[in-house]
Amino acid sequence: MEHGAQASSGAKSSVVLRPSSGAESRQTRVLQVLPALHFGGVERGTIDIVQALAEAGWEPWVASSGGALVNDVRRAGGRHFAMPLAKKNPISIGLNIGRLARLIESQDIDIVHARSRAPAWSAMYAARQTGRRFVTTYHGTYNARSHLKVRYNSVMARGDTVIAISQFIAQHVRETHGTDNRRLRVVPRGIDLAYFDPRNVHADRMVALARKWRLPDDRKIIVLPARLSRWKGHEVLVEALGQLARDDLCCLLIGEDRGRRRYTDALIAAIRKRGLEGVVRLVGHCVDMPAAYMLADVVVSPATDPEAFGRVAVEAQAMGRPTLASSHGATGETIIDGETGWLIPPGDAQVLAEALRHTLALDGDQRAVLAERARAHVSQHFSKQRMCDKTLDVYRELLAVGQ
Predict the structure, then answer these.
(1) What is the CB neighbour count within 10 angstroms for residue 380?
(2) How far apart are CA 327 and CA 344, in angstroms?
């Protein structure tokens, strides 16, 4: 493995890493850095690592601008330090270098783990200044329509170790930034198998959601859980439902637009154009996704852009739901086509309609076999425990440097 803060271009920092004092014997301290603690996969993964570190006897810290999940960090055994890390302007990034460096020194942090681009720039220079180990998690392909944007994104490939959340992302990092395999580690995202377990979802939770959404008893339920964004493929599903032309269905679009009202309005217009007002419902954010999955006869994830990981497909399989997802990005790593779910060409509404027709026709025995295979697949490869264990292994590798 290569050590020290090093850019993908091969330029080495002159900073000599500070040796870790006592490694795990004196509560090794890990600082995770991200913009904010709102609801999302990055944020949930951060808290999962906080809990794993605390359970391992380490001392977990998180720096962010705050948010709804700050108390979750504390409940998981971590400490939170608030600073304006969500700001992307160069002045804020520069000021945050000093803030982070002071935090690292005052709390004697051993490892700095950056999870997003703007705070990663601050974290990288702060780690260099203080001689600490620096690790990044590369979460997505990111938009890169210019050389300047590619350079901005490159900070996520400048860790002493770079964690990629899928093989798809690892290949992207190699091709885009020339990152050496010796610095790359693939650690897929993981989910809580106890939380996403159909046996742990009491009927009362399902009844409560069904009443809230006023679901009819005599219809098949199709669920698409994703924020309302064009690339998530909502309009592809709407077009497929229009081709099916069935009135015995109810399709739930679960997610918020996060202020992107223009897309929401366009989506509503597409629903009306196809006469699907009585079929498709926009139900907003859901706090009980296991119960929502249990209501579903089919879960659909028809993203038109590649998913860096595709959490929905994994959660749905863990819940034993028949799952349809686009056949690009990391989805081919999370779904075994024809065994634990089905992969469909991205953006192809006709094939999606045919897949929906097939999946909705599965009988009870076929669904049971599919559910068993899907849950076993997720349990083996995409558990939260596996993700945490592999991440802590990365930290241990970094701590071993110079021992």
Answers:
(1) 9
(2) 5
**Confidence at 162, pLDDT banded by 50, 70, 90:** very high
How far is 383 from 188, CA to CA, in rounded Å? 9
pLDDT at 5 over 90: no
Q: Per residue in 289-339, pLDDT tens?
A: 999 999 999 999 999 999 999 999 999 999 999 999 999 999 999 999 999
pLDDT in tens, 112-146: 999 999 999 999 999 999 999 999 999 999 877 78
Number of neighbours of residue 264 by Cβ within 10 angstroms: 17
Q: Tokens 């198998």 appear where?
A: 193
Which residue type occupies 243?
Answer: Q
